[in-house]
Design goal:
- The complex is a heterotrimer.
- Chain A has two domains: 169 residues, Rossmann fold (3-Layer(aba) Sandwich), CATH 3.40.50; 64 residues, no CATH class.
- Chain A is an alpha/beta fold.
- Chain A has nine helices and ten strands.
- Chain B is built from eleven helices and two strands.
- Chain B is 76% helix and 3% strand.
- In chain B, α6 packs across α8.
- By secondary structure, chain B is mostly helical.
- Chain B has a single domain, classed as ABC transporter involved in vitamin B12 uptake, BtuC (Orthogonal Bundle).
- The longest helix of chain B is centred in the N-terminal third of the chain and has 31 residues.
- By secondary structure, chain C is mostly helical.
- Chain C has a domain of 214 residues.
- In chain C, α4 runs antiparallel to α9.
- Chain C is globular, with a radius of gyration of 21 Å.
- Chains in contact: A-C, B-C.
- Chains A and C meet through α2, α3 and α5 of A and α7 and α8 of C.
Chain lengths: 244, 287, 326
């Protein structure tokens, strides 16, 4: 069990954004977290990464209790993430961005740079290494964030709505990329809105609604689950491949 | 409780109301556009000089000085917005801080150069001396200043929360882009905010001039007082500034009484640092 | 080889400056003052420029350095320079104490907290008998040994300051190109993203603050050696803090030579302005100063050196890079 979150609750005052949610992710798995807006999936995600401290519950990562640890400590243990709105280092080049990730494992700047170059190549940004990060469009920035996270040699990569704002072609390219990353042995957790992505990528899915988990299983099981359909659409049926 | 202690508290409240007034300007700007005006203390200082000049030139009392100071500093505020603040608002933090700091230095030393370094005071016979009520001595000028401070702060709060233009200003502070889409012009609202803040600050200066020494360097201490008040009350909240101002006024007054005038500044600075460290969002501010 | 001609010529000029100005004590002194200011501004630059934490209260460290030096002389009879390491160690400790709660604060709050702390220290120092109260303390009136560093000519000071500045810039350069430099830039751009990549933002900001404080203290001690006197205003005053920030910002905060460029412009400006305008003119100097600061903030927020930065070559369009306009 690489990631083991038990009974996680996150409350803001009286409002429970996440209510007693648990998830376990095996090494090599791809887990999808879905749910309508405000369902609590992003909050739960941020509890896993350490950006938000939990109100109660525990998070175990790679055998270590990280519940009280800040994001940087979890990153050092091998938990990497990307952001919904890309937070690339705008004053730096693409290469330097990735180098920051690499510096976690390679303290020497030159070694880190070389590692970063390598990762950028594999991710498809090799031809842009010297470009300023701010010259990239949204898909470029998202890809850079992924490269940057990969450069830190993580065990698990958590993607926060990595497909938001991408055209269908770009989404396909991104799905390919995530598949390759997963194929390289990295455990993946994705928070996503787009059904197509979840169905093509995730092995297991967890559905959030109003802070609680309402269904879990394979993508097929979940998309035909009545409770899930109602949560998203009231009482209408969901079309396979529709963008929810 | 001894009469003296009550006296100290009452004068603290009266002064606190004036602190509330000039802090409300600062909190308005801060809340609306996330800019801290490091020149704020010097705006007050110029309001004080305006009052002194009006009295010297025209012999009119603070009644004449208040509108003049209000208009003058309101103009200064709007000018600062258009010439400087508007451009640095979206820039790097360093530029924002430097910008208003430079303005502070500019105004402070312009005052030095124009008026010299000596203190000036308005004679306290301007407003009818003092009277005794319930065993406590009230100085006319301080009572008037306190009452006006309180009144104008409340007016400012009401304008912001109960008028159409106030809600437009608040809309801009929440989300300038959305406000724009609704037909509100953010720059106009922001300029208006600077004007209103300037007016409030100028009035406060004119009121304080009645019983404080006026010199080019008062801005420094007054700025810190304003920062403490705003931090304590919560940035963006005029009502918070009011409550906080009254509290700070009393704290300052008690400190001066208990540990002496030099250390009263120390108490205020310590309070400031503690507020920043332990509750930066203050009593009523947005988090 | 050609690349080294201009820097080489500059280097020779810098080294020979006191000799070239041997007939003019005013200009010699000016050179020393520029270097001293550059040391302070370069020290500030570490935390304010590279780490992006705009402290406007660095005078607290400067004053600690100056007072440490004068105190070891006044109360222990030691040469003032012996107080420099003491001042530096004290400043590192003070930086740690202030830094831990304050560096958590963002932007404006951090700046205000640093101002408040410096002002607090200033007011307290004016009430301390040990520190000479509001009058301050003076260093050796007559030099007792060469270690008292009370030179008549500014030339020895020039070379001492040059050595210290060179060392500081070298340290900064090493940091800039190493892991710490990368991490500080990342923190400045996006602390949240940096932390997600394993960067202990709090720790690095604190290190930068401590290193910055130590060298600012050193500048303070050197100031005391040259000027022979310090009081609460000249040690802890807000003007000291502001000057450090402005010099670094004018030349380019976060750039290695930014503070030096800023000092090269502002120090002569201030000295010449003061001597030509005298008395009331001193006020005018700072009116100009303030105006310059406003102009920099408004038009040149990245400093003068950014004007000379080569624009990066146009990047070829890529299928990945162009998506949505941002």
């Amino acid at each position: 069990m690489l990631i083991d979150a038990k009974n996680v609750t996150k409350a803001f005052g009286a409002f429970k954004a996440v209510d007693d949610a648990s998830v376990s992710v095996e090494e090599g798995d791809i887990l999808g977290l879905i749910g309508p807006n405000g369902a609590g999936k992003s909050t739960f995600f941020n509890c896993l990464t350490g950006d938000l401290p939990v109100t109660s519950g525990t998070v175990i990562f790679n055998g270590a209790d990280v519940t009280r640890l800040p994001p940087e400590a979890r990153a050092a243990l091998g938990l990497a993430r990307t952001f919904q709105v890309p937070l690339t280092f705008e004053s730096m080049s693409v290469l330097d961005n990735a180098t920051i990730g690499a510096l976690l494992r390679h303290h020497n700047a030159r070694e880190a740079r070389a590692k970063a170059r390598d990762v950028l190549q594999r991710v498809g940004l090799g031809h842009l290494v010297d470009a300023p990060a701010k010259s990239l469009g949204t898909p470029g920035r998202k890809r850079l964030e992924i490269a940057r996270a990969l450069a830190s040699e993580p065990k698990a990569l958590l993607l926060d709505e990595a497909m938001a704002g991408l055209t269908p072609t770009e989404v396909h390219e991104a799905i390919e990329l995530v598949r390759r990353i997963h194929g390289g042995g990295i455990t993946v957790v994705i928070v996503e809105h787009i059904m197509e992505v979840i169905v093509s990528l995730a092995r297991r899915v967890m559905v959030f609604h109003q802070g609680r988990e309402i269904a879990r299983g394979t993508p097929r099981e979940v998309t035909s689950n009545q409770a899930v359909i109602e949560a998203y659409l009231g009482r209408r049926r969901v079309q396979h491949g529709a963008h929810l | 409780m001894s009469i003296t202690l009550v006296q100290v508290i009452v004068s603290g409240l009266l002064l606190g109301a004036v602190y509330a007034l000039f802090s409300s300007g600062l909190t308005l700007i801060w809340g609306m556009m996330n800019v801290v005006n490091f020149a704020h203390g010097d705006f007050v200082m110029l309001g004080m000089y305006a009052a002194v000049m009006v009295w010297t030139a025209l012999g009119g009392g603070p009644f004449a000085a208040v509108p003049v100071a209000a208009m003058l500093i309101a103009t200064l505020g709007v000018a600062s917005y258009f010439l400087l603040v508007r451009h640095i608002m979206r820039g790097p933090m360093l530029a924002q801080i430097l910008g208003t700091f430079g303005l502070a230095l500019f105004l402070r030393y312009a005052a030095f150069w124009t008026f010299g370094a000596d203190f000036k005071t308005l004679p306290d016979t301007l407003i009818g001396g003092s009277f005794i009520l319930g065993g406590i001595r009230f100085e006319g000028s301080r009572v008037l200043a306190g009452v006006m401070g309180l009144a104008i702060t409340l007016v400012l709060h009401l304008i912001l929360t109960r008028t159409a233009i106030g809600s437009r200003m608040l809309a801009v502070s929440e989300d300038a882009t959305a406000a724009q889409l609704m037909g509100i012009r953010p720059q106009r609202m922001q300029a208006l905010a600077w004007g209103m803040a300037g007016a409030a600050t100028g009035i406060a200066g004119a009121l304080i001039a009645n019983f404080f020494y006026t010199s080019p360097t008062v801005g420094e201490t007054l700025a810190i007082l304003a920062f403490v008040t705003v931090s304590f009350g919560g940035f963006g909240s005029v009502l918070g500034a009011l409550v906080a101002g009254l509290i700070i006024g009393v704290v300052e007054s008690l400190s001066a009484y208990l540990v002496g005038p030099v250390y009263k500044d120390v108490i205020v600075y310590i309070l400031f640092v503690l507020v920043l460290w332990f509750r930066p969002q203050g009593l009523m501010g947005k988090t | 080889m050609k690349r080294f001609v201009i820097p080489g010529a500059l280097g020779v000029l810098v080294l020979a400056y006191p000799l070239l100005t041997a007939d003019s004590p005013v200009y010699q002194r000016l050179g020393a003052l520029v270097l001293l200011a550059a040391i302070g501004a370069s020290a500030w630059n570490i935390v304010g420029g590279y780490a992006g934490q705009v402290s406007v209260g660095h005078a607290v460290f400067f004053g600690f350095g100056a007072y440490s030096s004068v105190v070891v002389y006044t109360h222990l009879g030691w040469p003032p320079i012996a107080g420099a390491p003491i001042g530096m160690v004290l400043s590192v400790a003070v930086a740690a104490v202030i830094g831990v709660p304050t560096l958590r604060l963002s932007g404006h709050y951090f700046s205000m907290a640093t101002i408040a702390v410096a002002e607090l220290v200033r007011v307290l120092s004016s009430t301390s008998e040990f520190l000479g109260g509001a009058q301050g303390l003076g260093g050796p009136a007559m030099p007792r040994t060469v270690f008292d560093l009370s030179f008549i000519s500014a030339a020895p000071f020039y070379y001492i300051f040059l050595g210290v500045l060179a060392f500081l810039l070298w340290l900064t350069w090493r940091m800039e190109n190493g892991r710490i430099g990368f991490y500080l830039r990342a923190i400045k751009d996006s602390e949240r993203a940096a932390r997600s990549l394993g960067v202990s933002a709090g720790r690095y900001k604190l290190y930068a603050y401590m290193m910055s404080g130590a060298f600012t203290a050193l500048a303070g001690s050197l100031y005391l050696c040259m000027f022979g006197f310090v009081d609460p205003e000249s040690g802890f005053g807000i003007l000291i803090s502001v000057k450090m920030v402005v010099m670094a910002a004018l030349g380019g905060a976060g750039q290695l030579f930014g503070p030096l460029v800023g000092a090269l412009i502002l120090v002569p400006l201030e000295e010449l302005s003061n001597s030509y305008l005298g008395g009331r003119g001193a006020g005018l100097t700072f009116v100009v100063y303030g105006a310059i600061i406003v102009i920099i903030a408004r038009f040149l927020p990245s400093g003068l050196l950014s004007l000379f930065e080569r624009r990066p070559a146009r990047q070829p369009k890529s299928d990945v890079a162009r998506g949505h306009a941002d």
